[in-house]
Write a structure and sequence with these properties.
Elements (H helix, E strand, L loop, with lengths): L1 H10 L1 H16 L6 H15 L2 H19 L9
Helix pairs in contact: 2-3
């Protein structure tokens, strides 16, 4: 998970989402905007903005974990 955070930070994604949140607050006014509104809009924006390279990295990581599971290297606590 830390690797994903680092990739998003390096790509500028985290800063871009942070700036988008500030824009929402400025547009609606700090006294009128709700946390729920910022979160809802920012989540939609953030999901759309994840760089393809980061998505591909995450898919590779998931495939690696699943492949290890097929070989019996990773336990999921199931008997």
């Amino acid at each position: 998970m830390e690797e994903l955070k680092q990739s998003l930070t390096r790509s500028g994604w985290r800063q871009e989402v942070k700036e988008y949140c500030k824009t929402i607050i400025r547009q609606q006014g700090v006294d009128r905007v709700t946390t729920e509104d910022v979160a809802s809009r920012a989540l939609q924006y953030a999901r759309q903005r994840v760089p393809d390279e980061v998505k591909e990295q995450l898919v590779r990581r998931i495939k690696d974990i699943l492949t290890q599971g097929e070989d019996g290297d990773v336990g999921f606590g199931m008997a």
